[in-house]
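Each record in this resource describes a single protein on a pair of labelled lines. With that in mind, the following record should read easily:

===
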Amino acid sequence: MSDLNEAAMPATQEDRTLAMLTHLSGIILSFIVPLIIWLTNKDKADKAFLNDQAREALNFQITMAIAWVVASILSTLLIGFLLFPVILIVNLIFCILAGLKANEGVAYRYPFALRLIK
């Protein structure tokens, strides 16, 4: 959905709370919850904000999963072990920031997520 459509239809408190939980779930459950939320709401026009935020969280968690795979491969060269805590901290910080913004009703964009799901 475009930003224009989201601005025309403000998100309900329920959608904002669910979007916040979707972002925060990435800290522990990776891409599972964002995928479920996105798949169950992607065809509902009244859930534009929730759909957008679930898709954004899903793209970020896919990016984090790719980072984990790369760090795992690089750990054979002993470089990856340095990346594990960085990936963990980045995921934690950005998920919390996104959750707070989503709860305010602001569409959050992760600064470096691969936009694979459109």
In short: Residues 13-104 form one domain. The CA atoms of residues 30 and 65 lie 8 Å apart. Confidence is low (pLDDT under 50) at residues 1-7. Helices lie at 3-8, 13-29, 32-41, 48-74, 80-104.
